[in-house]
Amino acid sequence: MNQPKKQALGHGFDSLLPENFDKNLVLESNERIESIDLKNLKPNPNQPRKHFDNASLNELAASIKRYGVIQPLIVTPRQHGVYTIIAGERRFKAASIAKLKTVPAIVRSSKALEQLEVALIENVQRVDLNPLEQAFSIERLHDQFSLPYDTIAQRLGKASSTVHNIARLTQLPEAAKEALTSGKITEGHARAVLSLKDDPERQSYLLNAIISLGWNVRQAERFVISIKEGIKETEKASARTETETPATKKVSQKLGTEVRIKRMAYGGRLEINFSSDEELDRLLSYFD
Known about the structure:
Blueprint (H helix, E strand, L loop, with lengths): L32 E5 L3 E2 L11 H14 L5 E5 L5 E5 L1 H9 L4 E6 L2 H15 L6 H14 L4 H8 L3 H8 L6 H9 L4 H8 L5 H14 L3 H12 L5 H6 L6 H10 L3 E5 L4 E5 L4 H8 L4
Parallel strand pairs: 2-4, 3-5
Antiparallel strand pairs: 1-5, 3-4, 6-7
Helix pairs in contact: 1-2, 3-4, 5-6, 8-9, 8-10
């Protein structure tokens, strides 16, 4: 016997869920999308996002006027026919601007939402997720399930700073996202690239240098430090990523050991290598 076909969720609904997530957890075959009056919908008071960009809302409202609300909201029932918006407050606001009377919504009980939230948490904890997949999953828990980052961190058993840093990866430019997903750059590289988000030209230069020149994370960080210290010439900032210079080579020849420069936020340090206490004593004798 053929299984009953599940009702489509609407184009774009996949954005609610991480890749490889079991969509059967979201909508069962006997459930449906309902049309609900805007006046019966109330924003979630625990929604982390408090500010909505007006220009972006107006653009979405214009799209809704033309095409309607393509992606349904997720709501949970309160009393007297009123519903709390769990996911889709931005669509709700844009629909109000577009003067719609009703919007499509999937009605979920509190228990069902809790089960879905738990499933998403478990999904983030999977060992086979790459950093970007983790980042998007965390952002969905934050934006669409009204979970503060600190709460997500507690449930994942991670430090709050770690969760914040992972979530920020969603702000990477598309080229960097692709490089991170394909393994061309590491998470450490990605964070260095992200720190130049206000300088797209040199952000792109850094990404290309990491991929084409094989810069390690420390080199990428030194490039960023140079830019933030006010070095305007990209080539000069690039040169500061090197640990070996003509000056270090000269000192190295004189001392008979490897000498390297390590750039820091302010200035840096000169590292002189030694392989034994005897060699250390020999090097120190130069400074007597």
